[in-house]
Amino acid sequence: MQRYFLQREAFNIDTVELPPDVVHHIGTVLREGPGYRMVLLDGTGVEYESEVLTLDKKTGTAKVLQKREATTELPIDVTLAYALPKGDKVELVAQKATELGLHHLLVFESKRSVAKWDAKKAPKKVERLQKIMQEAAEQSYRAVVPTCQYVSSRELAHGFEQYDAIVLAYEETAKSGEQSALANVIASLAPGARLLLIVGPEGGFDQDEIDGWVERGGVPCAFGPRILRSETAPLYALAAISYALELT
To answer: Is the pLDDT of residue 208 over 90?
Structure first.
């Protein structure tokens, strides 16, 4: 069934009002009408199997047939802090990380980030990433749309206390042969725990950044024996988390 995220307030009444973009997709793209069944989501992990009651060019309504808790979310809450990479890699990571279960994306500029976001343009860029993640969430049968925020390095570090564990993707640990830190962190997390995953840009992190984060509780981790690209590392970590907590 096709899936659509609506505002939570839309479910306060028995008959759900469908927004214009959903009406357009059902009527124009899918060429469906009254009687069409779909899944509506409120972004909190609840699914509403629904049926279209009315549909015209601009408006539509649906009736909720069944309400249920989703089973497609990771058992832990994962936040990715991703240092700005070159080009549109952040869009690729936003999309694929959503498919892999990410809950929050924090974009920041590290000392070695070549790319910079103009303060005036940052809100538009965040808005685009949010749209990409919503589309990816619908496609991958997620019940929650990840949030996206642009933060400073200082804001990132000052928020460490809200997490149960902090993983630092650090290539020097891979070069030194470290193999178990990531697995140990994942194994220590109980259902519902909050994990912060910090991944650097193409040039990696400055040693001062790593030292400062370690002082605040961060754990430098190798992601296997190979050195991964900036856009590969977060996807590797999320896949490892899924395997460890959902498939074993």
So the answer is: yes
